Amino acid sequence: MRVVLLSLVIQEFLTLGHSASSHLIPPVILVPGDGGCQIEARVDSTFTNTHPHCHLKPHQWVNVWFESGFIVAPKDEDFRCWLDYIALVYNNTTRHTTSQPGVETRVPGFGNTTTVETLNPELTSFISFRYLADMVEALVHTLGYQRGHTVRAAPYDFRKAPNEQAEYLTRLQTLIEDTYQSTGGRRVVLAAHSLGGSLVLYFLTHQPQEWKDRYLEALVTLSGAWGGGVKAVKVYAAGDNLGSTYIDPLKIRAEQRSTPSLAFLLPSRDLWSPEEVIVTTKTNNYTAHSFREFLGSLKLPDAYNMYLDTRDLLKGAPPPGVPIYCLYGVGIPTVEKLTYTDEDSFPNHPTLTYGDGDGTLNIRSAELCKKWVGKQKEPVVVKAFPKVEHMEIVTSRKIINYFLDLLKGIMERNEEEWRKRSPDYDGGKPGESMCQAKHKR
Ligand SMILES: *[C@@H]1O[C@H](CO)[C@@H](O)[C@H](O)[C@H]1NC(C)=O
Ligand SMILES: *[C@@H]1O[C@H](CO)[C@@H](O)[C@H](O)[C@H]1NC(C)=O
Ligand SMILES: *[C@@H]1O[C@H](CO)[C@@H](O)[C@H](O)[C@H]1NC(C)=O
Ligand SMILES: *[C@@H]1O[C@H](CO)[C@@H](O)[C@H](O)[C@H]1NC(C)=O
């Protein structure tokens, strides 16, 4: 039943997609969230294999995110081999992260959508590896978008925080400019999920207003991770199973703890007060203002350094300076506090207390964009979707349809503008574009 209905809807839109107006669609560039793109790794001859049973072939790129072995009966050594590939090493002098000695990583597919649509190139049909595929397919089939041309993606090394993304941000700028040029001067819509929203906000606060006005039509954020969340505290303490019951969170926790992006996602001091207890044990209370003590109790001095490196990157949450559509889910239990009732349970087995949010982001973080209303001249549209979970927001039909409608709205505005500028335009408000039209005549 559902399938039939869906194909009817798609048929209806297909007509529109192939109509004359498809040349007016604004190009879209997708910026994925944490864990939302493929990463490849390879080792060289200097690599010292800490686990002899790992079959690491030197000089060969292999996909390490997302690792299919995790889903199908993972063994302990699978996790240990994987950690060698993907965990980062922090240097507290340079304050930068690198791979383990002898390991090199890269993020494939920049500029096209393949590596954000599904996370494993070998298992493209495996439903749990689909990420932005539904969204891209909807753009292609209903509005006539073309992969690699009018819908593109900017995957990045999501293990790192914005302070280590200088090269990526330059590539992102070039991608936006190239896409604008190659579509005949159509302004780009940036669509970002979760951590991608924070990264784009960081990018935009470092761009001059003239550049934003020239190249960008709008920013659409899906669960933008503006102020972080208590979930990050829980991941430091007890790891995260990435939503899979096959994965023991404690076996992949070391990788998660090694990433600066996790430090960047710790609850913001702008949103959590020094009085609000986030972690409570028999002997201590920790707040968003005492991560030094909390990370110290976990013996993670590097994580604390990463926190210092990243905690002020979006301080005060400056407005993006482009029209923004801030979409997020609410009404899903979201971890708000960790309690340890006895000493043995610390840190692996917290008792979790839940509050409102999207299952990952606390509501106060997701709705931080509300404060931009009236703080920038461009429109700020804020919309909460009940019962839409943090990952589900990119596949939810409701959200995808909202996004398509939003793009159609831009298309109609573009068409209107185009008609005003064309000599055949007969009426409307006089303005600069009208004068240009008359002049041409
Ligand atoms: C950290 O970086 C500095 C400067 O590049 C270097 O001298 C030092 O050996 C590095 N430390 C480690 C532990 O690799
Ligand atoms: C830097 O790291 C080294 C070992 O990696 C450690 O001995 C030293 O205390 C650290 N320094 C700071 C300031 O964290
Ligand atoms: C983008 O990827 C699609 C397949 O997913 C391919 O058909 C298309 O040619 C690619 N475009 C570019 C510009 O690489
Ligand atoms: C932690 O805070 C609670 C109030 O939130 C307080 O009752 C308790 O005594 C505090 N515990 C410690 C060890 O400071």
Care to describe what's here?
This protein is globular. Helices cover 35% and strands 15% of the residues. Strand 10 and strand 11 form a beta hairpin. Residues 1-20 and 427-441 have low confidence and may be disordered. It has a six-stranded parallel sheet. It is built from 15 helices and 15 strands. The protein has one domain (2-440): Alpha/Beta hydrolase fold, catalytic domain (Rossmann fold, 3-Layer(aba) Sandwich), CATH 3.40.50.1820. The protein is of the alpha/beta class and 441 residues long. It starts with a helix and ends with a helix. The protein has helices spanning 2-17, 76-86, 114-117, 133-143, 166-182, 195-205, 209-215, 230-238, 249-257, 260-264, 291-297, 301-310, 363-366, 397-421, 432-440; strands at 28-31, 39-43, 62-65, 89-91, 96-98, 103-106, 151-153, 188-193, 216-222, 279-280, 285-286, 324-330, 334-339, 351-355, 380-386. One 2-acetamido-2-deoxy-beta-D-glucopyranose (NAG) binds next to loops. The site of one 2-acetamido-2-deoxy-beta-D-glucopyranose has 2 residues, from loops.
Q: Supply the CATH architecture.
A: 3-Layer(aba) Sandwich
Mean pLDDT: 88
Overall geometry comes to globular
Low-confidence stretches: 1-20, 427-441
Radius of gyration: 23 Å
CATH superfamily: Alpha/Beta hydrolase fold, catalytic domain
CATH domain class name: Alpha Beta
The count of DSSP E runs of length 2 or more, i.e. the number of strands, is: 15
Bound molecules: 2-acetamido-2-deoxy-beta-D-glucopyranose
- Total individual domains: 1
Classification by helices and strands: alpha/beta
Number of helices: 15
Range of helix content? 25-40%
User: Separation of termini?
Assistant: 54 Å
Q: Element order, helices and strands?
A: HEEEHEEEHHEHEHHEHHHEEHHEEEHEHH
CATH topology: Rossmann fold
Instruction: Summarize the biggest pleated sheet.
Output: 6 strands, parallel
GO molecular function, one term: O-acyltransferase activity
Biased composition (Basic and acidic residues): 417-429
Region (Disordered): 417-441
InterPro entries: AB_hydrolase_fold, LACT/PDAT_acylTrfase
